[in-house]
Every structure is written in C-alpha cells, then in structure tokens.
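User: I'm writing a short methods note and want a consistent example. For Threonylcarbamoyl-AMP synthase, I'll paste the sequence; you return only the structure tokens, no commentary, since I'll be parsing the reply automatically.
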Amino acid sequence: MPVLIRLAHHLAGAMRPEVQVCPGVKTAVFKEIKDKVLRLSRVRDAAQEWMEVLHTAVHFLKQGDVVGLPTDTIYGIACLAQNTEAIKKIYEIKGRSESKPLAICVGSIQHIYKYCKVTVSDQLLKDLLPGPVTLVFERSATLNPDLNPFTPLVGVRIPDHAFMQMLAQKCEEPLALTSANLSSQSSTLTVDEFYNLWPQLAVVIDGGPIGDRMSPLCRLGSTVINLVTPGKYSIIRPGCAFTPTVEILEKHSLSLSTSDP
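Assistant:
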C-alpha cells in the first residue's frame, strides 16, 4: 500500500500539463485506488454483502487506519477515537490544524454517557438523536486524552444513517469523525468529490449521493449545539435541521445562552 500511495501522489502531481505520465501506469494505479471503494448502494438489500462491507471497515479501523464513509449530512473520514496514532493520520490527511477539534460518533445514546458528562435529559437526547446534530458536552475521563487535548469539551454524534450506527456499534468504541475534504475546502456529497484523499484512506464506503445537491443548504453539515451549561444551549454552528433542533431544545425548556460557558 505505501508504494501505491507514493505512486498516486506522484500521478496527482503529474496532472500538470508540462509533466507526462505513461497512460498505462496512470490507468493501473488509479484502478487499484478505485478498487478501495465499496459501494453500499449496490448491497443495501443484501444483508450478507452489507455485513462484508461493515466487517471490512471495522477491520481497517481496528488496525489503526482511516476510512471514508457516508453520514446523514455529508461524507466523512473516521478512525478510532481511542487510537492516538490514527488521530494523527486524520489531521495529516486533511492538512488540518491540530488546534481544531474532532467530533466523536457513537452507536447509541447509552454510549454518550460513557464519554461525556451529560447535562440534559435522556428524553431530549432521544428527541435529537439519531439526527443531523453534534452535541457538545464536557468530556469524561474515559475518552482518549490525546483527542482534542486543548479543550475539556467534545462534540458527539449519532448520525441518522444505519451503516454509521452499525459501524460504531461493531467497533465497540467511539469513532473520531470529521468531514471528507481538505481543511477549508467545501464539504463533499459524493465519494468522487474527495477522490484526492483516496490514496491515504484504507477503504472508501460509497453510500451514493447525499442530500439534494441543488439546495443551498446541502453542504452545511450538522448543527453544532453547546449543552455544557445545564438548562442552557448555545449555537456553535448552524447547519442541517437547525430550526427543528432549536424547537426541540426549547420544548425541553432550555434557553439560549447569552455567553459562552
């Protein structure tokens, strides 16, 4: 795989008009990279094949790799949050500053209590999750201290996406999750939109196009809500389902905070 990655980077650099690459070499290398893509869209009704894709993703995550995958909002890349070396890989792949935090993804509401200091009712969590929201709490001591070591907070997600939920459950630990794009570039709605990251990913799970690409809101990602202060909420980032999310928070008698905790 390292040879393939080096070749792929070489070829990517050789896309400049003044540099020539043997067409046969280019085709062979990109075919190998393309073979990393496992298409959920073809196996959604085939339980055995679905499980094979799931087990492949779990295998690579367990050995410390980074994978590309669909969520309910945009495409993401993920690794095991408890694996410090894998977290470093994510930052390297994205070209992202290590001062910018990663969210975690868990497979059930029960697991939120393990990794976060929850300040809201269980019913509120059930009303919001699974869904296109990231909830920010104080982190618990159980979470890897090398994940976002500069902050006592962590954002947690349970995407409304069956594959993502099953993956987190099968891994039996949280995933560190971020968008599948180079830092500061647009979010991605298909796997082809982040093909430049493929050489550095162990596998890419293709769940088909996400959302309505014609909508101006389609690339917003999840709505990020700070719930650190009991009875209060603050908006860190408005995103998908922003209005319904606020309505649920206020239905549970939370009020908008006028200052950061």
